[in-house]
Design a protein that fits this description.
The complex is a heterodimer. By secondary structure, chain A is mainly β. Chain A has a single domain, classed as Immunoglobulin-like (Sandwich). In chain A, 7% of the residues lie in helices and 45% in strands. In chain A, the strands form four sheets. In chain A, strands 1-2-6-5-8 form a five-stranded antiparallel β-sheet, with no helix packed on it. A five-stranded mixed β-sheet of chain A has the order 9-16-15-12-13, with no helix packed on it. The radius of gyration of chain A is 23 Å and the shape is globular. Chain B is an alpha+beta fold. In chain B, 16% of the residues lie in helices and 46% in strands. Chain B has a 17-stranded antiparallel β-sheet that branches. Chain B has a seven-stranded antiparallel β-sheet with strand order 4-11-15-19-6-9-17, with no helix packed on it. In chain B, strand 27 and strand 28 form a beta hairpin. Classes of the chains: A mainly beta, B alpha+beta.
Chain lengths: 249, 370
Amino acid sequence: MNGRGPWLALAGLLALHTSIAGPSQSGGLEYQKRAGRYEGIKPKPVAGYDIELLSARADAPDTSDPMPDRLRIRFYLGSPSDAFICVRELDYRYYYWLDQVQPVVPWTSGFHNVFEWPSSDVLKQLASLRMDDLGVTVRLDRPEPAAIEHVAPAIFYSSTLPARVNGYLFSFRLNGSAHITASIFSADKTEPVFREVFPRKAGGAPFTVRWDASAAPAGSYRLVIGGWFSDTNQAISQTVTFFHQPVVQ
Amino acid sequence: MRRIPWPRIALLVSPTVVAGILTLLLMNWKSPSHAQLQISTGRFSFHVTGPEPAQVLDSVQLRSITIEGYSTLELNPDKAESANTADFSTAGKMPESAWKPVRLTPPVVFKAQQPSLEPSITMESAETVSHPLGVLDRLWARPGTQVTVNSSKSSPLQLSVRFSGQPTVAILSPVGSFRLFCDYAQVSGATLARPLPDSQAFRFHLAGSRPQVQVRGAPNSFGLFLVFENPPSTVFSRDGIPIDAIDFTRQTSQGKVESSIVGASELSYPDDPKADPVRLNPSDLVTLGDLSQFRIQRIAIDPSTHSLLVTASGFAGTLRTGSIGFVRDRRLTRFDRLRHNPMLLLLFSVAGWAFPTTVAGYKLFKELTQ
């Protein structure tokens, strides 16, 4: 009798068991280390914030393609420092997250700081996700959200880099319905250069503050979000400081 | 030396071996299970399937509504006024003198600007904040729509319902005059004396002949944030919603994904009532996949905690529950089904009795005939 028979039968049983148990989780979309960054879908298995900054971008919509092949982030630094890039969905559907970017060369002063990555690895495979659905933050000094944020507004584009930054989009999410006032101050000034009142903002919905900075000189600015929650009258406070450098070179 | 009678030994042990292998196989053979979920959650999402649109929301009376991801909002007012939002006091009130008349050429259409601005519209009664705004008509979702429902603990009750993947239309019937706040919208049919800022405030009264507001959602994502004066008895459809995917997770500010289960929940097996139900604790994970004949039967709201009580059932090819790091496959095995099915158990008992009896009978017959 052939001595391999029982082993073949056992192997058959094991194979049957594996097929019954179903395939293991696979695919390349998981949040993982990729070339020069961490990117992907966060695995499905903290503290909440009253208001959180979701995105700080230059207002330079890249409408050539809803999701181009390559995405680029460029930002200005006054001096070499740590910069923590985070790309996420403004209103999450896929749990997309990109962070822990490892720059090819250290971040340096000026507009020379560029990070780019292919959308084919993850983003293009997420049906109907567009560049507009993504928020970008480049936090300075620390990667975590805070009540006072220091950011470098990101130019988020695919191929054509704008020559000037003429405005900014700051996106936030509130924990509850609120009355909000957004004011932008030049450094050390008490009179705002911009003020917008949003009398009703829904909790959980992202909202964006647009500042037309075409007439603003280069310099440090701070965006102050104030207001209160409709149901508790609890005060809301968030400050975002940033440097406005209009000329991209 | 006497030869060992291997064939006889093999014949003797074969029933035990066969029974053992069969039992092992049945204990590991998991197949799609008919499962029923009763989940208490703060957020969940599902994917609508089936041949025709499914009703998601029942007709509900609202205190206010915020609309996001819309394409157009159209109304036919007979009276309109506008005010500068900068004049809103810190108490959220506007002096009556701040409202200026608007020249109308109906219909008035609000068109959302670029999506990256997150354009939104909020509507509330012009009487008092607690006065009802009006009624949101039943809302249907086409097959292929991803629906995400979120509940907040705040008072009054607030729910958000987001539709993505397919275009959705909502109809609202306001009662009396109402305020409308819009951000990043182009307005036609209403002429204002001053240039429009990014954030605008209006006060409308609709013509009696066309007392409705029609909102067309953007196909990519259409969000309704509903505020209720009192938790209504029904918000969601009572007809059942056919689905092919359902998810009970949320994402934290740091990007971590965690369970959205917030209260005592349970997984049971309608076809196997004797199978012990699986108790789920807050923060336990539930993963379902390969769903067939799956329906959301009921979505209720706990009036005290404002959590969503979801009842759904159908066949699941993937069914896992547990805490992080201790997730277990909860599909029933064939052995479980055998154990809990009296007919199958009887059949196997008869087979188990018949086999050795037949062998013994055959042996007896052979000995008697020799």
